[in-house]
């Protein structure tokens, strides 16, 4: 993933009010606190709070992602060392082009940047991307042929990803469901449909770069492309910006999303909704929405992979004599046959009565029989039990035979 140029102008740690060595937990805590304070629902009509909310959300989207944070930290360290100086249109911060280095080991800019040392600067490997930087993005197409560099379009800046949470009953999670989720976030403007242009008008192709988003600069035998300052690298111009979104194509608003929960979703699982995150600027792609599902426990069932487990209370006589009892499943009750002389704690398997599988079929229902001791017996039942106990002794049955030796 390439480091976005906008990152170099922002201090995301300062936006969240944390130190640069803050832990992931500290970043998460700081973001939640600020997001709660600045959320548009709590500050209706407060544009300053809305802008701050956007900055805090963007900072969190970078710093909460280990890969993005690493790239961001490396880019900041590179800038602090003076080895990369952005500014103006020249990514090297200087006015000169490239000159050959004596001895033939690469090239240097007039500012002293050694292209031959890219491997040291960005990490080992011939690709120059060991630290996560996209060299093609950083140097704007340097080293390509002139015609190809001039036609290379800029990647659109997609919107940020969003995080949401929902809680489901155990059986809804197991069997799948569709829920409605309310999200307040930057979304495509309803007036211009995300284009940024006033209703009835459309963005036009930038004539300075012919829609490529880049302009070509030639330096002797070399050429490189840089973002067109006329259109900020988008390749389009807006003559009449949309008044409702000031030409950004984005509005912060509440929207309702139908989220399809797949069968068999587990507690803590994340569902990705492509393109349902924050809207990108001026019609560029939206980010994704990640929904974390929390599942409430069920009073009867527990889960082990695609199998369900259930404890079935039975009487002693049902285990000895055998019986057919009614057992609940996800789809209603079914009859289960308990064979005579079944041991307490035995597991009976009901095939196909477990968690539905996405590819078809289902796991099993594992029923554990457990003797329930009656809290009280009447005199007739006690006499019968005593008679049974005597018969048991006479028959030579000892439940502890061989036990405890």
Automatic annotation (TrEMBL):
Report the domain of life of the source organism.
Answer: Bacteria
Per UniProt, subcellular location reads as: Cytoplasm
Listed GO biological process terms: DNA replication; protein refolding; response to heat
Which CDD domains does the UniProt entry name for this protein? DnaJ, DnaJ_C, DnaJ_zf
Where, in this chain's numbering, is Zn(2+) bound? 189, 192, 242, 245
Cofactor(s) essential for the protein: Zn(2+)
Q: How is the cofactor bound?
A: Binds 2 Zn(2+) ions per monomer.
Keyword check for Nuclease: no
What are the entry keywords? Answer: Chaperone, Cytoplasm, DNA replication, Metal-binding, Repeat, Stress response, Zinc, Zinc-finger
Q: GO molecular function terms here?
A: ATP binding; heat shock protein binding; unfolded protein binding; zinc ion binding
Pfam families named in the record? DnaJ (PF00226), DnaJ_C (PF01556), DnaJ_CXXCXGXG (PF00684)
Instruction: Cite the J domain residue spans from the record.
Output: 11-76
A single cellular component GO annotation: cytoplasm
Q: Residue ranges of the CR-type zinc fingers?
A: 176-254
SUPFAM superfamilies reported in the protein's UniProt record:
Chaperone J-domain (SSF46565), DnaJ/Hsp40 cysteine-rich domain (SSF57938), HSP40/DnaJ peptide-binding domain (SSF49493)
Domain CR-type residue range list = 176-254
Family (UniProt): Belongs to the DnaJ family.
Q: What biological function has been recorded for the protein in this entry?
A: Participates actively in the response to hyperosmotic and heat shock by preventing the aggregation of stress-denatured proteins and by disaggregating proteins, also in an autonomous, DnaK-independent fashion. Unfolded proteins bind initially to DnaJ; upon interaction with the DnaJ-bound protein, DnaK hydrolyzes its bound ATP, resulting in the formation of a stable complex. GrpE releases ADP from DnaK; ATP binding to DnaK triggers the release of the substrate protein, thus completing the reaction cycle.
**This protein's domain notes:** The J domain is necessary and sufficient to stimulate DnaK ATPase activity. Zinc center 1 plays an important role in the autonomous, DnaK-independent chaperone activity of DnaJ. Zinc center 2 is essential for interaction with DnaK and for DnaJ activity.
- HAMAP family linked: DnaJ
Summarize the subunit comment. Answer: Homodimer.
Q: What is this protein called?
A: Chaperone protein DnaJ
Provide the species name. Gordonia hirsuta DSM 44140 = NBRC 16056
The gene name on file is: dnaJ
């Amino acid at each position: 993933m390439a480091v976005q140029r906008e990152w170099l102008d922002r201090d995301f740690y300062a936006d969240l009010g944390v130190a640069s060595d803050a832990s992931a937990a500290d970043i998460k805590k700081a973001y939640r606190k600020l997001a709660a304070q600045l959320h548009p629902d709590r500050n209706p009509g407060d544009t300053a709070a809305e802008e701050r909310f956007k900055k805090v959300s963007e900072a969190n989207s970078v710093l909460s992602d280990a890969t993005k944070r690493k790239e961001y930290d490396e880019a900041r360290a590179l800038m602090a060392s003076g080895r990369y100086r952005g500014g103006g249109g020249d990514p090297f911060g200087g006015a000169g082009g490239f000159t050959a280095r004596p001895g033939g080991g690469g090239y240097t800019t007039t500012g002293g940047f050694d292209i031959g040392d890219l491997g040291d600067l960005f990490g080992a490997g011939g690709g120059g991307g060991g630290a996560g930087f996209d060299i093609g993005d950083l140097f704007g197409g340097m080293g390509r042929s002139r015609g190809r560099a001039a036609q290379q379009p800029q990647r659109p800046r997609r919107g940020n990803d969003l995080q949401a949470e929902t809680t489901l009953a155990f059986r809804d999670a197991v069997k799948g469901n569709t829920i409605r989720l309310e999200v307040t976030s930057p979304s495509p403007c309803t007036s211009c449909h995300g284009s940024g242009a006033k209703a009835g008008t459309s963005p036009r192709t930038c004539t300075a770069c012919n829609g490529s988003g880049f302009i070509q600069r030639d330096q002797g035998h070399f050429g490189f492309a840089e973002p067109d300052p006329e259109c900020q690298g988008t390749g389009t111009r807006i003559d009449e910006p949309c008044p409702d979104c000031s030409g950004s194509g984005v509005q912060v608003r509440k929207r309702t999303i139908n989220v399809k929960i797949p069968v068999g979703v587990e507690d803590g699982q994340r569902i990705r909704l492509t393109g349902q995150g924050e809207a990108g600027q001026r019609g560029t792609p939206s980010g994704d929405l990640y929904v974390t599902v929390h599942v409430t426990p069920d009073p009867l069932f527990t889960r082990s992979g695609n199998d369900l487990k259930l404890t079935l209370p039975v009487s002693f006589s049902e285990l000895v004599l055998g019986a057919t009892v009614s057992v609940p499943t996800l789809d209603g009750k079914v009859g289960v046959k308990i064979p005579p002389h079944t041991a307490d704690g035995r597991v009976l398997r009901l095939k196909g009565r477990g968690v539905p599988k996405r590819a078809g079929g289902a796991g099993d229902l594992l029923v554990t029989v457990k003797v329930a001791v009656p809290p009280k017996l009447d005199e007739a039942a006690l006499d019968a039990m005593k008679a049974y106990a005597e018969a048991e002794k006479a028959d030579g049955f000892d439940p502890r035979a061989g036990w405890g030796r």
